[in-house]
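As agreed, record passed on underneath.
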Amino acid sequence: MKKIVASVFLTCILLFTLSQLNAFAEDSTRWRLPEGAKARLGKGSIKQIAYSPNGMHLAAAGSAGIWIYDVTIHQEVALLTENTGPVSGIAFSPDGSTIVSGYSSADILVWDAETGEHLKTLKGHTGGVSSVAFSPDGKVLASGRTDGTILLWDFSTPP
């Protein structure tokens, strides 16, 4: 009888402890923000973030795809997921009309920043793309790999 009571007691303690750990994890989004922070955004692991040139949107590249946030209301407004691999690099064109994203699959996807429509895929790298960046005039896109390879792409005409 004592063994049964002890087993029930230990089971209750274990269940209580596990429920408290779960409650702690669920409550993490309600933690207070650090001093100076305005909002807490993000889902999945984030590899890189980029602001739109007008400062109204933030693109977060990560394991789930590309989350687009409206920073004025601190809410997500789109999720771009054409490619199934994790996004490793992201950039807005200087005029804000285009988003490009690099993937471990070696692809670079070009997106319409307004609609989220996938416009085209650039292929040329032989391994994963780790970073992407536009020239200041928006006419050239640079993409890089972890092996040091950099490709320059002509963006002088709209995608």
Observations:
- Helices lie at 2-26.
